[in-house]
Amino acid sequence: MHVVADTTALVEDGVLAPEQALEIETRSRDVMIKLAVNAILCFGIIAATAGFIFWLANAVAVSITGVLMLVLGLLILAKGAEAYRMFGNSAILIGAGMLMGGASIELVDKYEQLAGWIMTPAGAFVTILGVWRWRSGALSAAFVLGAVILMGLSMHLIGIELLVMQHQIGSPLRNLILLYYAIAVATIGWMIDVRLVTALAIVPFAQMLETGTAYFHAAYVFYSPEPTLTIVQMIALITACLWGARKTADRDARHLRILAVLGFIVANLCALVGSLWGDVVGETIWGPGRYSDGYPDWESYRAAREAFRDQALTIPDGAYAILWAVVLAAVIIWSARHSQRGLFNAGLTFAAIHGYTQMFESFADRPLAYLLGGLAAIPLAWGVWRLNQRMRAHPS
């Protein structure tokens, strides 16, 4: 379990020897440097690959340059010193990215109707071949092979998405395809042990109920047409991940914990939506839907929506705000007791967002609400402090 500790204070208290504190600090610094190097390296490879493809803007030129980069990378790995392996790996990845990325762009641009049918199996073949070599232990460089697997997976998933758009596939098959995306991304992220990739699985998983984001001029938007059902979906994910994290090795548990934290973040964003507008549960799934496309006119759609709302489960915004506050308090206390730092930090962050939002949206002119909330917080803090003392005194 990763913890945050003040090594200087631990040395002063006699808990650690100075040499032990120095070793902890050195290892921590090494981890940060590795993260920085990998981030810069990945950015450079992606930028160089995209730059080559769009600068050359010719399928033959991109293919030739990609092959040359592959050959150059292999020569560096075969003949170069250990200190220069990073350049060899980078050249191989740029070459592979140019070949696969260039081919994909050429297919989409010139052969749109065939692109999905070619990219889906081609990407699957590259992914499966890479996974087989990874599982068989035939690793020349884990970083290179992992990156090639991700390229193949990206090509495969983009190919499927092209087919979905081409054939206008809707629910429920569309929802199952999004679930497949999430499982595929999470599985590959776990296999190559890159939590950033695992974390990306939350995007298609949340989109199963149309939750997502949008951007327009100077505004980033989060939307959730079904906040309550999405929260239930995320609670199921969080519960499964936390249960699995307790049963598996630390290497696997790290991936489950990152998904749990991201599920908690999405659930809180949905709760923010519900606390502002409330929720008519199921309106966009088994109700009349978000749009009036299936109705002869707007009046028919509005009548169907009003009829559905009259008999549907409706949660008002005020009830949502109160329930969200109670759940946040419970999660903060529980995560603090169980050293779940990710959930703890996310809980505190959303508690601040919740308080700030409600201060302006609901209680701007109601000072009594601040009085009651403040007075209630004091005994709550005292109770948590006393509970922690008792649990420290009686760990069993």
UniProtKB/TrEMBL annotation:
Keywords: Membrane, Transmembrane, Transmembrane helix. This is DUF2157 domain-containing protein. It comes from Falsiruegeria mediterranea M17. The chain crosses the membrane at residues 35-54, 60-78, 90-108, 114-132, 139-160, 172-192, 199-223, 229-246, 258-278, 318-336, 343-361, 367-385.
